[in-house]
Amino acid sequence: MVIIGGGITGCVAAARLAARGLRVVVLEAKKIGSGSTAASTALLMQEPDVDFGDLSERYGRVTATSVWKASRRAVRSMIRTIARFRIPTALHRLPSVYFTRNRNEARALEREVRARARAGLHCRWLDSDELGDLTGIRGAGAILTRGNAQVNPYVACLGFAAAAGRRGARLYERSTVRRVNARGSYVEVETERGMVQARWAIVATGYATPEFKPLAARFQMRHTYVIATPPLEAKQRRRIGLGDVMLWDTERPYHYARWTADHRLLLGGRDYPASRKTSAASLRKRTDELTADLIDLYPSARDLVPEYAWEGLFATTPDGPPTSASTPGILGTCLRWAMAATE
């Protein structure tokens, strides 16, 4: 098995496959964990990006329930896998809060809670007072979902790479793949310095996904933007009011936020299609917009100046739920990396 891409998805796959006795080679164009993984804000959520009610209208309740339960199993499996491979300081368990400040949207969220409950998907409604107490946000309501987590994506990626190496996988950095050829029952993967033959090639490339033409048509690439505050003292964190939860809202594209282990507040969003050109000027513009969004959400943050800002490129499917795609001999894993742990 040859895995193209040494980010979190590729390294999780390498560790899991090597643990099952398969011979595994990982080819990474740059450094392990330096691509999409390093840009991730690492919200490990069991909720797909599409509401349960919307997914039910499109595919039916049975299929929607299956998608949501598969996503929940994936998150639980990832949590277990991090523990099994003894990756230190990578994971912190906490619930998610899916909120709105719009009263009309709040009614829709209440219907979403009832729909999930009928399908056996556990969550809890938060009224405006409960939302304020837990998050410091003056909003109309929210859905609280337990069983989620956040990770340090880079630490986790290196941990999985090390676990794969201990189990016999071979990992090669600075090994850009130039061509993948299907040859009947096997594939040939060409790099600048040589060739690897294998029964299957797994494409787990993140940023580089558009370079694989047969797979690129199955996904849409988007840019997302993130800001990080300086580390905040306990008094500052209390003034903001965000508890130990991860946030996302009903806007489309949505915002997402969480605390880091060193007490920085991360806020991301402002997603745009990847067809738009990116530059230092566009990053500054999105940084200013996200800073204004942060102040709008938390007026007490008006004096905070982001210490870091960055852009990430990610793949999404046309209908939202994670998927995989394949051509003969090639399996694409261009999906939320949490799904790589699905058992």
CATH architecture of one domain: 3-Layer(bba) Sandwich
Q: Helix fraction?
A: 25-40%
Termini gap: 18 Å
What would you call the shape?
Answer: globular
Residue-averaged pLDDT? 89
Q: What is the string of helix and strand elements?
A: EHEHEHHEEHEHEEHEEEEEHEHEEEHEEE
Computed Rg: 20 Å
Structural class computed from helices and strand pairing? alpha+beta
User: What percent strand?
Assistant: 25-35%
Low-confidence blocks of residues? 334-343
Largest sheet report: 8 strands, mixed
| Biggest sheet, spatial arrangement of strands | 6-7-5-15-16-17-14-18
Key terms:
343 residues; alpha+beta; FAD/NAD(P)-binding domain; D-Amino Acid Oxidase, Chain A, domain 2; 8-stranded mixed sheet; 6-stranded mixed sheet; globular
